[in-house]
């Protein structure tokens, strides 16, 4: 199996069983899925999230509850710039209700360099993960392959996206995987 075939397998299963939420179809995305808010609730209770003061987060729809709660709790967020690959925007002291569309983050934040930032947690979307912490993304965009941050990486996944062991080489490792039913700590 190739990375592309694995992605198609997951996207097709989510679509076939009506488990994908906006944006649909899930193809080409880190899917938003039925139960994502329950999965986010598991992650919100972790010590890693609770202790985090500065969070690097992807812009995927599935991560919206995590980004909003981080801002509600007074945490600072770094997001990738929506139109400039490799650029990042820092948001702090922002009411999450003002950020109607995540693509508008650049209006409320300031450009920052990731180097030297004391990032405590990284939130990323996923297409597939495994029980050992293997991760496969959508194949482009955030998180970039070169992204090296010394902080735990966390993601949300539907049970259909979780494999005992990925049938391909993982693109990276994650430290926390929250599903609607459980929290996986590889």
From TrEMBL:
Leader sequence residues: none
InterPro entries assigned: FTHF_cligase, FTHF_cligase-like_sf, NagB/RpiA_transferase-like
Stored Pfam families: 5-FTHF_cyc-lig
Highest taxon listed in the record's lineage: Bacteria
UniProt cross-references to SUPFAM superfamilies, sorted A to Z: NagB/RpiA/CoA transferase-like
Protein name from the UniProt record: 5-formyltetrahydrofolate cyclo-ligase
Gene source species: Thermus tengchongensis
Phylogenetic lineage: Bacteria, Thermotogati, Deinococcota, Deinococci, Thermales
């Amino acid at each position: 199996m190739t990375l592309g075939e694995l992605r198609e397998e997951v996207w097709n299963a989510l679509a076939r069983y009506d488990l994908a939420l906006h944006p649909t179809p899930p193809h080409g995305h880190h899917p938003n899925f039925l139960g994502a808010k329950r999965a986010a609730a598991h992650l919100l209770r972790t010590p890693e999230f609770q202790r985090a003061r500065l969070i690097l987060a992807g812009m995927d729809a599935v991560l919206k509850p995590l980004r909003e709660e981080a801002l509600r709790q007074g945490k600072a967020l770094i997001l990738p710039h929506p139109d400039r690959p490799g650029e990042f925007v820092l948001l702090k002291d922002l009411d999450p209700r003002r950020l109607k569309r995540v693509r508008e983050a650049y209006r409320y934040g300031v450009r920052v360099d990731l180097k030297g930032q004391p990032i405590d947690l990284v939130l990323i979307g996923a297409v597939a993960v495994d029980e050992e912490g293997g991760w496969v993304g959508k194949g482009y965009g955030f998180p970039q392959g070169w992204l090296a941050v010394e902080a735990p990486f966390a993601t949300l996944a539907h049970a259909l996206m979780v494999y005992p062991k990925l049938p391909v080489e993982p693109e990276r490792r994650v430290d926390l995987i929250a599903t609607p039913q459980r929290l996986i700590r590889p």
